[in-house]
Amino acid sequence: MDRDELERRMARAVADEDYELAARLRDRISALDSTLFQRQVPGRMGLGTDQQVFAPPKGWKPPKKPDLGVSNVKPRRGGR
Hints:
This protein is mostly helical.
């Protein structure tokens, strides 16, 4: 469904005083507007989860991992 259809259904639900349906439709409209978060597919992470998942912007690349062979710690003097 597109945003206009959802808004019409939400207005109809408010006119019929079905506020629970209107709230669910409002949440779906706000989920369409968000760019960084995507709604989780029901049942994908288990029953009852409704967690939002971070989606990085297009073209984003993770930074390079540090080289584990190089240490930034200077050796101690005097030994143990």
